[in-house]
From TrEMBL:
One of its GO terms (cellular component) is plasma membrane. InterPro entries: MLTG-like. It catalyses: a peptidoglycan chain = a peptidoglycan chain with N-acetyl-1,6-anhydromuramyl-[peptide] at the reducing end + a peptidoglycan chain with N-acetylglucosamine at the non-reducing end. Gene3D superfamilies: Endolytic murein transglycosylase. Keywords: Cell membrane, Cell wall biogenesis/degradation, Lyase, Membrane, Transmembrane, Transmembrane helix. It comes from the Bacteria. Functions as a peptidoglycan terminase that cleaves nascent peptidoglycan strands endolytically to terminate their elongation. It comes from Promicromonospora citrea. GO terms for molecular function: lytic endotransglycosylase activity. The gene is mltG. Belongs to the transglycosylase MltG family. This is Endolytic murein transglycosylase. One of its GO terms (biological process) is cell wall organization.
Length: 340
């Protein structure tokens, strides 16, 4: 059985985001005392710093693992260390009961634990395959394992499609000691575990995975619930979803490279502007946050949305097509002004 390195599931998405220096979270603008351990700690513990983590998210993970005594002390030390902004994502070996200052300093050394395999939220099966090849697993072994989804524990309700069922996490596995099939089995098992923990019945699991993969690709962090609601509203209205992420996945190229004829090809099952319903498969590995958004979408009548500012990720939602066109013009104006 492969041991999973503890991983913090973020409300994050795709993209190689840098860890941000967030020294003034929790309102810590005064030198009030915060609980803190002394010294450089004791027993080793591996902690995952995910993509996009800032001071507060790292602090929460370290408090949970009893590495530091309080989030406040860590956030303050994070803000005081100029090297903290360069902390890299990945599995870091720290120690229990460290002072916040020592924990930040050790993280800033960026001695990422070797041998861990990280599957990023939103990764496709092909991206996971390439990640495993890059980590040293034999390509032939990976392909042989992927060719037999049932042997990996893929449930019948997945229809033989692994896409979306290989859980995003960090796995404590090395190609020298763990087979490709064993790693992939663990990914499927973790997905099933999360679905069971969230009480998703078997007959809903595949649709939930597909919808969550769409949310993962489409939604800025704080808007997962709203995007999940748009998907539900459009399905209920028997409308095509019109999500370019679906077309990009199916065509294996960015949306700006997809032609009008390709977008409108009704014979292509991933042509989301003209083919109604969900795509035949998921389009990547959803995070738990996206699964939760699908299970409990925000309440609202929205059927369209536009991210009008790519820097701030501000996204506007509407049930009016005319207002949607206004939002699109707002984005186009922002894009022109900012060189997009």
């Amino acid at each position: 059985m492969i041991a999973l390195v503890a991983v913090l599931v973020l409300l994050g998405g795709l993209g190689a985001w840098t860890v941000k220096n967030d020294g003034y979270l929790f309102g810590l603008r005064t030198p009030l005392a915060a609980a803190d351990y002394e010294g450089e700690g004791g027993e080793p513990v591996v902690v995952e710093v995910p993509e996009g983590a800032n001071g507060s998210t790292i602090a929460a993970e370290l408090v949970e693992k009893d590495v530091v005594a309080s989030a406040e002390a860590f956030v303050r030390a994070f803000g005081a260390n100029p090297r903290a902004a360069a902390i890299q994502p990945g599995a870091h070996e720290l120690r229990l009961h460290m002072s916040a200052e020592s924990a930040v300093a050790l993280l800033a050394e960026n001695k990422v634990v070797r041998g861990g395999l990280t599957v990023v939220e939103g990764y496709t099966v092909e991206q996971i395959r390439q990640t495993m090849i890059d980590a040293g697993w034999p390509e032939a072994d990976i392909d042989a394992a992927l060719a037999d989804p049932a042997a990996l524990g893929l449930p019948e309700q997945a229809g033989g499609h692994l896409e979306g069922w290989l859980a995003a996490s960090t796995y404590d596995a090395k190609p020298e000691t763990v087979s490709a099939a064993d790693v992939l089995q663990q990914m499927v098992a973790l997905t099933l575990q999360e679905l069971e923990e969230l009480d998703v019945p078997a007959d809903r699991q595949n649709d939930v995975i597909i919808k969550a993969s769409l949310v993962e690709r489409e939604a800025p962090d704080e808007y997962r619930g709203e995007v999940a609601r748009v998907i539900e509203n459009r399905l209920a209205a028997d409308e095509a979803l019109g999500l370019d992420a679906i077309d990009s996945y199916g065509r294996k190229k960015p949306s700006h490279q997809i032609t009008s004829d390709e977008f409108n090809d009704k014979s292509f099952p991933y042509a989301s502007r003209v083919v109604k319903g969900l795509p035949p498969t998921a389009i990547g590995a959803p995070s738990r946050a996206s699964i939760e958004a699908v299970l409990s979408p925000s309440e609202g009548p929205w059927r369209w949305y536009v991210t009008v500012n790519l820097d701030t990720q501000e996204t506007k939602f509407t049930d009016s097509y005319d207002e949607f066109l206004q939002f699109r013009q707002e984005y186009q104006a922002w894009a022109a002004e900012n060189g997009y």
